[in-house]
Amino acid sequence: MTQILEIITSVNGAVNDAVWGLPGLMLLIGTGILLTVGTRVFQITHLGHWWKRTIASVFHKDSAATQKTDTKTISQFQALCAALAATVGTGNIAGVAAAIVTGGPGAVFWMWVAAFFGMMTNFSENLLGIYYRRRNEYGEWSGGPMYYLKDGLGKRYGKKWLQIPANVLAVLFSCFAILASFGIGNMAQINKIVLNMDAAFFKNVSLGTIPGTEIDIIHLCIGIVLLIVGALIIIGGLRRIAAFAEVVVPFMAVVFVIGSLIVLFINIDQVGPMFVSIFKFAFTPAAFLGGGIGVLIKKTMTQGFKRGVFSNEAGLGSSVLVHSSSNVKEPVKQGLWGIFEVFFDTFVVCTMTAIVVLSTGYIDLSTGAPLDGVNGDTLISQAFGQYFGAPGTWFVAIAMLFFAFTTVLGWSQYGSKAVEYLFGSKGVKVYKVIFVAMIVSGAVMEGGLAWDLSDTFNGLMMIPNLIGVLALMPLVLKITANYVDRKIKGKDVAPMLSYDPALQEEAAARSDDD
């Protein structure tokens, strides 16, 4: 077993370095920059519009955003919650802390940069997901990068030779999504749940290990409990996952933000030095890193970008797999929810985590170096415990449990849609059984490898997806301009709702109040 893990670690390290090198980062951020410029900085110039049409609409009585039109779809808000369930997880808590410990306070700045441009990447992904979706044999919506690669890139430009590479990219994305669902969406999340639950509730308890192995019995027991609960929800499909996420995600996010703000106000005198350190070390390597500008690029920027993408998933194409199940008819409207998703995930939740990490004294703000013995995996738990005692540690463990567990639920849906594309609806049942069984593997495996695998699979998903988004950028801009003309400027022009004439006619016939 040890030899197998060593081989996996070695191969994964080589692939990870290739995927997350300068070309990969240029593709990721470059796509967001091009889309931001192409849409004339839509996330800023139309801020009031997308805010009103997303989270603000949830508080309006009988809002279309919260209504389900049939039993085969989920509401726009449920789609957001299901997507946030998959994105707001350990990346927002342990991932941000690890990025700061590894890359210094400047990593937070690059996380913000990735999120700012990622807003338009996520917008474009979701727009294309709605535009190229179709119904499966059960009448449910199926959409995602594999569909806009196959039917968008493969057919849009009238070049027959493009169909083969487009089909290959669609298959590759689906394969990478399935693998990623086991990494970022399952093992990495479960592993962090177990570590935090163990530290919070079983610190002074030891049941030993299973004879002949290094498997901790407490970790195994926690894994088995999570497996049972996960099976009950995952087998129920998207609507059960969405219903669960619709309640849990907003509640836990609000509570976590409130707790973080309390810590901030306790350390209000650290606000100035904290933000100075973020901007200072974004462009100047933290003293503990050394090595000049080369290390800055490799450590600070890379950690910020990688953890930012791990957190909000903009550029991966993953959240499209659930956003496409929304009852919305307008591609741009679901794209607006994509903008809000990245904003809330990174600029709100991740920033709260960074505030806790940087304001509580575990990072030397003058040098950017973590104190001796600081562990990114449990840093947030330590910080809350410092101010709230044992209840603070328990709170973080419970928050991590719900955040990470809903991530597992959300990613089970991502993987299901990828399997459906490759093997049809029957393959989904087999996949769900394997996915649920892998929960126990995540509970007992070594944490570092789980994160490294997740980073690699993230990068592998990113490549075919962003190729599709870039190739279809002219279409994204055209659909966006069409929406702006109709909905913002009030022009009388025909809507662009679907690539399929029949679905276009069906959507156009529906009430505009969706």
How would you sum up this structure in a few lines?
This protein is an all-alpha fold and 514 residues long.
Provide an overview of this structure.
There is one protein chain. This protein is an all-alpha fold. It has a single domain (2-483), classed as Up-down Bundle (Amino acid/polyamine transporter I), CATH 1.20.1740. Helices cover 73% and strands 1% of the residues. It contains 21 helices and 2 strands. The chain has helices at residues 2-19, 22-38, 42-45, 47-53, 76-87, 91-103, 106-131, 145-153, 163-201, 217-234, 238-266, 271-283, 292-312, 320-323, 331-359, 379-388, 390-423, 425-444, 447-471, 473-488, 501-509, and strands at 134-135, 141-142. A two-stranded antiparallel sheet has the order 1-2. A hairpin with a 5-residue loop joins strand 1 and strand 2. Helix 9 (163-201) packs antiparallel against helix 17. The termini are far apart.
